[in-house]
Amino acid sequence: MTAHVRIEGLHKSFGSKPALRGVDLAMRGGEVFALLGRNGAGKTTTVRILTTLLRPDSGQVFVAGHDVLRAPDRARSAIGVSGQYAAVDEKLTGFENLYLVARLYGMRRARAADRTRELLARFHLDTVMHNRAGSYSGGMRRRLDLAGALIAEPSLVVLDEPTTGLDPQSRQNTWALVRDLAGKGTTVLLTTQYLEEADQLADRIAVLEDGAVVAEGTADELKRMVGGERIELVLTEARDIPAAEQILAEIGDTVPHVDESARRLELRTESGQIALADVVARLNMRAIPVLDLGLRRATLDDVFLALTEEPAAKEVPA
Ligand SMILES: Nc1ncnc2c1ncn2[C@@H]1O[C@H](COP(=O)(O)OP(=O)(O)OP(=O)(O)O)[C@@H](O)[C@H]1O
Ligand SMILES: [Mg+2]
Whose CA is nearest to atom 29 of ligand 1? Predict the structure, then answer.
């Protein structure tokens, strides 16, 4: 694989506190890559290093063949970035904000104005382009910031939590934009805390936990890694929890997960339908009433929980 983006052995500490502890990542040209992790996992730190805004303590970063640490200026021309918090100048209009970015990228006046209008239309900001950005809603600011990342037609677009704080409609629009970009051959790296977003959008996902990549693959590969299916059971009566837990424990070779307050029990199983039938038979035998009972495939939520809560689950082979 000739990687469009290559990150190797990235270490970064803030004072004595390590934020990145040896991060390796590779992205193919034209793929959507999601960096998934909860608060403080190291997503923004990775993104800032990749986009030349922060220097690592050690490691190497290459984008489109440019050495990001040795030749940041050249690398920058290949990268468009939209930060975790929309960076727009409130005193300037939407048009002026984008035009300024275009000029900073060295475009001539006419070209800069054309490109600015084109992107304002694409992001549905053309009707408000002469209003000050200070009057824009959060979603509009976010869109303006995204538009800025695309000004110079970069081959890599980096989006740090692009949909955090967006309403469902704006989120869908952002997803459509990401798909569109990737369809045209742009590599997109996005960070997210939303499993669904990574699942829907990303060709490949890396799960970052405590400054290290703890798993990497397609959504399906990650789901297969935690394995099997889940039997989910919601009881009518809380007093039946111990009996139902015992039934699940007898059937599965893993320990059932119990959520007492929701009267919800869950068991991982490799023999889905057969195990489910067995559960039903045993529940009936003891006349335990059930509110909800079903079988489902592993979700990215299961992957995430397995990786970030039970260290032992990391040993499960793919
Ligand atoms: N400038 C800084 N100074 C000190 N510590 C920092 C700095 N930037 C990040 N950190 C620390 O490094 C760790 C990783 O932070 P980072 O911002 O990369 O996480 P994140 O995955 O982007 O989290 P979030 O989802 O909250 O945006 C955290 O413990 C954070 O407190
Ligand atoms: Mg962050």
Answer: 40
